[in-house]
From TrEMBL, chain A:
One of its GO terms (cellular component) is plasma membrane. Part of the binding-protein-dependent transport system for phosphate; probably responsible for the translocation of the substrate across the membrane. This is Phosphate transport system permease protein PstA. The keyword Lipoprotein does not apply.
Automatic annotation (TrEMBL), chain B:
The chain crosses the membrane at residues 32-52, 72-101, 113-143, 163-187, 240-260, 280-303. It holds the Pfam family BPD_transp_1. Its main location: membrane. The keyword Nucleotide-binding does not apply. CDD domains: TM_PBP2. The gene is pstC. It comes from Pseudonocardia bannensis. Residues 76-303 form the ABC transmembrane type-1 domain. This is Phosphate transport system permease protein. SUPFAM superfamilies: MetI-like.
Length: 362, 317
């Protein structure tokens, strides 16, 4: 671009062309050209490929390339190189966005279409105890997931909230900086390492080969606490200081100020963050694989032996289906569908909370 | 500003006699913070205590029979290789997606589109594993064959092509999908923070939209893109289930991306071996977990460092 403008401004050029001969503006492609061009390219490429045997993937790729090249050439001839580059980048960026959506659509479509066949009452009413082949369900796995996630949430939400309050309202000096740093470190712990930690901790007390739901809950809370701390901290930070000062000025002690002024103001954001954190740990598989294992029957006691959880259930049903294969694969997909539905529902709930209960800003 | 008023508030609040409630409340808040430090120290101590037997065991007793380094090195290689490929695929895509959401999409739908990309992050990793196994792997065979036919002279695509498609290439693509929303989210944040005046100045000088982005948005967001990519890398390094489900492993060290013998990753190896392991094998796996922890820790700390450095000079936030 810089070269271009220099050439246009250079004196020689002004000398050998009179002002009248220079066009005031460059030519422009009509506004409708991108859309018409797209339709034309899609029709032509579709026609050619359907004559030779159509593959949707190939069709999309060829159309995109032909369209990009075509628009670039047309724009370069009519509008000049700068506009042409601009149009090319627009096409590339839009295409990238569409490409990014492909996996989402494909995942949701696959899970729903494969999972619906066993999405029935039996799936939610029976466990896998004594089941070979057809039938069976994941009632035990659903309960296990709820119990373990619930325990993890019960442990990490108070710790996370209090830590965030400490960091924002009380913390100064070396301890606060150390906590901030190590919460960052915790955010980066791979989920499998969290599982190994919980295993190592419990193996020390209960001997090697220990498997229990509570260990899984501990592993999940190692993953959950930093998420809760981070999101709560962000929310507490945006509570205006004027509110705190007004409360102090009325002689309210600090702890009541926090409980009655600061927390109610930021409760929507905190609830959103907590919900998202729950959704995140609910889908974790690796730590539960290491600490909880899998059980075929119902086990509602998280302190005694193996439990089934939805992600681990889906994993084992899929990779070691046994004979016959089909019923087990179907159960795996249905478990994945249930899991994805719970997680998506929690995500939507989080958005809803933040929208409905957002503090009124003037 | 907030810190100074905070300090004043502190001083004023500190003068009167502290109430009992105040003391309990601040004490428990502080205790929670200290608990986190204790837990993290516990992570390190317990992992080391479980890893210790493997560290001192004679080389012949480690699985594979050639010692700890010979066992862990191929896994480290596989971990780095898959994460790097995932990063190479995801970063340009994420930058483009972030640009689309912030600068190209119609303003009214932009937020909804961003939420759509965020949904990618909400899908549990086991679901990605099943999807990669059942959909992406079979679909990739044709593409891999094409790569091998026309680009086979590059060692990466030397083949022979895996017939199941459960290759490190597919595993890396699944990882790329999983880290895409993270990188996109960070890039989107920094692109939105670009000073409006810079953008408007560029446009007023006659720049096209792309020139405006190249001259004002991208330079401003560069460190944000880098740190987002590093956070994505940290996630890709530690990702377990997707790799464990998709990849068919044989523990070799090779750059061949599309053959049926692939290097495993640390996390996937732990997930695959742990349920059947006892005794020293468990200690070995915990040691490899420690190595993974160290790698991700380094990557994440570098990412945080870049983010924090940028925050100081840009005055954003």
């Amino acid at each position: 671009m810089s070269i271009d403008t220099q050439r246009e401004r250079s004196p020689e050029r002004e000398l050998d062309t009179s002002l009248d001969a220079m066009p005031v503006i460059r030519g422009q492609l009509p506004r409708w050209s991108p859309w018409v061009g797209l339709v034309a390219v899609v029709l032509i490429v579709g026609g050619v490929l359907s004559a030779t045997g159509l593959s949707i993937g190939l069709f999309a790729v060829v159309s995109a390339v032909v369209y990009a090249v075509g628009m670039y050439t047309a724009s370069r001839v009519v509008e000049g190189p700068r506009k042409a580059t601009d149009r090319l980048v627009t096409i590339i960026v839009t295409a990238a966005f569409l490409v990014a959506l492909i996996p989402l659509v494909s995942v949701v479509y696959t899970v729903v279409s494969e999972g619906l066949s066993r999405f029935d009452a039996e799936f939610f009413n029976s466990s896998m105890l004594g089941i070979v082949g057809e039938g069976g369900g994941a009632y035990h796995a659903v309960m296990g997931t709820l119990i373990i996630t619930g325990l993890a949430a019960a442990m990490s939400i108070p710790v996370g909230l209090l830590t965030a309050i400490y960091l924002v309202e009380y913390g100064k000096g070396r301890l606060a900086r150390a906590i901030t740093f190590f919460v960052d470190v915790m955010t980066g712990i791979p989920s499998i390492v969290a599982g190994l930690f919980a295993f190592a901790l419990f193996a020390l007390f209960f001997g090697p080969g220990v498997r229990m739901g509570f260990a899984g809950a501990v592993a999940l809370s190692v993953l959950m606490v930093p998420v809760v701390v981070r999101s709560t901290e962000e929310m507490l930070k945006i509570v205006p200081n004027e509110l705190r000062e007004a409360s102090f000025a009325l002689g309210v002690p600090k702890w009541r100020t926090i409980l009655k002024v600061v927390l109610p103001t930021s409760v929507a954001g905190i609830a959103t963050g907590v919900t998202l954190a729950i959704a995140r740990v609910m889908g974790e598989t690796a730590p539960l694989l290491v600490t909880v294992g899998l059980a075929t029957g119902m086990n509602l006691n998280p302190f005694d032996g193996r439990m089934a959880t939805l992600p681990v259930f889906a994993y084992y049903s899929y990779v070691s289906p046994g004979v016959p294969r089909e019923p087990s694969l179907e159960r795996a997909w249905t478990a994945a569908l249930v899991l994805i539905m719970i997680v998506m529902a929690l995500n939507l709930l989080a958005r809803l909370i933040s929208r409905v209960f957002a503090p009124k800003t003037r | 500003m907030s810190t100074t008023t905070d300090l004043k508030a502190e001083q004023r609040a500190a003068k009167p006699v502290l109430q009992l409630g105040d003391r309990i409340f601040s004490g428990s808040a502080k205790g929670a913070g200290i608990l986190i430090l204790v837990v993290l120290a516990g992570v390190a101590i317990f992992l080391f205590s479980e890893a210790f037997p493997a560290l001192v065991a004679p080389a012949s007793e480690i699985r594979g029979g050639n010692g700890l380094v010979a066992y862990i090195w191929p896994l480290v290689f596989g971990t780095l290789l898959s994460a790097m490929i995932a990063l190479a695929v995801a970063t340009p895509l994420a930058v483009a997606v972030a640009l689309f959401i912030t600068h190209y999409a119609p303003r009214r739908v932009a937020q909804g589109l961003g939420y759509l990309v965020d949904l990618l992050a909400a899908v549990p990793s086991i679901v990605y594993g099943l999807w990669g196994f059942a959909v992406l792997a079979p679909a990739s065979v044709g593409f891999s064959t094409w790569l091998n036919d026309y680009l086979g002279w590059i060692p990466l695509f030397a083949g022979p092509v895996s017939v199941t498609g459960r290759t490190i290439l597919v595993a890396s693509l699944v990882l790329a999908v999983m880290i895409l929303p993270i990188v996109t989210a960070v890039a989107r944040e920094v692109f939105l923070q670009t000073p409006k005046l810079h953008e408007e100045a560029a446009l007023a000088l006659g720049a096209t939209r792309w020139e405006m982005i190249r001259m004002s948005v991208l330079p401003f967001g560069r460190s944000g893109i880098i740190s987002g990519a590093m956070l994505g890398l940290g996630r890709a390094l530690g990702e377990t289930m997707a790799v464990a489900t998709v990849l068919s492993v044989s523990g070799v060290v090779t750059f061949n991306l599309i053959s049926s013998s692939n290097p495993s990753t640390i996390a996937a190896d732990i997930a695959l071996q742990f349920p059947e392991s006892t005794g020293l094998a468990v200690n070995t796996l915990v040691t490899s977990g420690l190595v993974l922890f160290a790698i991700t820790l380094g990557v994440n700390m570098l990412a945080r460092y870049i983010i924090n450095r940028r925050r100081e000079f840009s005055g954003a936030n």
